[in-house]
Amino acid sequence: MTWPFDPTVYLGLIAMAGGYLLLARHRIESHTAGRSLFFFAGLLIIWLALETPLDRISDDSLQSVHMVQHVLIGFVAPPLLLLGLSSSMARALERLPGLRPLTEPVPAQLLFGTVMLVWHLPVLYDLTLSSEVVHVFEHLTFMAGGVLFWWPVISATSAGARHRMGEAMTVLYLIFGTFPQDTVAVILMFSHAPFYAHYLAVPRLVPWLDPLTDQLLAGVVLMAAGKISFAVAILRIGFAWVSRVRAEDRAAPAGTTLT
Q1: How far apart are CA 74 and CA 147, in angstroms?
Q2: Angle CA(167)–CA(172)–CA(175) in degrees, nearest 5?
Q3: Which partner from 11, 105, 163, 210 sits 20 to 30 angstroms from 150, CA to CA?
Q4: How far apart are CA 195 and CA 123, in angstroms?
């Protein structure tokens, strides 16, 4: 239950906060305090996942807690970070070399799905837990993949997309985006043997929680908690669609029918 201290994490968080404030300062006309709250909430989630006892427990004892960490940095923090951007801030970031094509729906979907599936292969998963360098790289790819995945969904970041999705397509995009995590979750939940050798050798923080049950819980965490941000986004899209349709109905002249 000790608290980790990784200077690279703090340097990364400080760099992200500084870059954000610099970007917002030059685009103050489209920046609001509300957006800042979202962005710094995303940074707080990253800190919570990587610089609290959650990190120690996930590495040294429980796979289910490790999956909580993956959910936080891959599914929760990225949309919060993007909600902190205005359209002009997003356009400025898209000028970074190579970023713009990756934010289109198809590449973004494929890249994040690949990140999710590949890092949960037993050989790579165990490697991340034996090599700190590989583990840091894994976390960076989870965060980067999550940002790319959510880029076409958030209204401010998707404003300049070549292929901007409507409400129905965005919902389908989000539903399709759950397939990779569900694939991993189902395998973990219904496997008859532990997948990852690392968790067979670590001390049991909870004595009655054997490695196979812990693996099942990891699958449940990914299946359930991993969908919270998706559910919130789909509900938000649904409410916005209903509000728009009602507004169009009220604005339509009497006797006309909207199709």
Answers
A1: 8
A2: 130
A3: 11
A4: 9
